[in-house]
Structures are given as structure tokens and as C-alpha cells.
Amino acid sequence: MTSLRKQRGWYNGAYLFTAIFVLVLFMSQPWLPLLLLAALAGAGIVIGIARGGHYLKQWLNEHPLHWH
Fold first, then answer.
1. CA gap 47, 1 in Å, rounded
2. Does the model's pTM come out above 0.70?
3. Rounded to the nearest 5°, which phi and psi values hold at 7?
4. What per-residue confidence (pLDDT) applies to 5?
5. What is the pLDDT averaged over residues 21-39?
6. How far, in Å, CA of 29 to CA of 8, rounded?
7. How far apart are CA 53 and CA 58, in angstroms?
8. Rounded to whole angstroms, how far apart are CA atoms 51 and 45?
9. What is the average pLDDT value for the chain, to the nearest integer?
10. How far apart are CA 6 and CA 15, in angstroms?
11. CA-CA distance, 61 to 37, in Å (whole number)?
């Protein structure tokens, strides 16, 4: 089994490598963060519509419309 010191060094090295890789990728392709934000916004809109429809259906069941 490796020592805690060696394990900690491997983790810090992998974390640093990943951080540098992500930074270089985003600097070389600046549209990637915008694409990620657009995907998250689209998912949020779909989830919001689904939840809103559920709440509307529940509210209409509790408050029936009276057409006079």
C-alpha cells in the first residue's frame, strides 16, 4: 500500500492537471462555456415548464373553474 504522502501528491497532481487542461480548453475555444450555459438554460426551461404544468394541473384540481 502506498503512503498517504504519495497518495496526496498523486491527487494534487491530477487535480492540477485537470484544472490546467480545462483552463486551456476554455481559452482556446471560448464558445464552449457559452454552449454549456445555453444547454443548462435549455434544461432549466424544460424542467420549469414541466413543473409549472404539474402545479397548474394541481391548482386547477383544487380550484375548479366555474363557467357562468
1. 46
2. no
3. -65, -45
4. 62
5. 82
6. 31
7. 9
8. 10
9. 81
10. 14
11. 36
Q: Which stretches of the chain are DSSP H helices?
A: 4-28, 31-62
* pLDDT tens figures, 32-57: 778 888 999 999 999 999 899 889 98
Grid cell 481559452 is found at 27
Say how far apart CA 48 and CA 42 lie, in whole Å: 10
Instruction: Mark residue 29 as left, alpha or beta (left: phi above 0; alpha: psi -120 to 50; beta: remaining).
Output: beta
DSSP assignments along 5-23, one per residue: HHHHHHHHHHHHHHHHHHH
Cell numbers given for 35 = 454552449
Give the model's pLDDT for residue 66: 80
What are the sequence ranges of the domains in the chain? 1-62
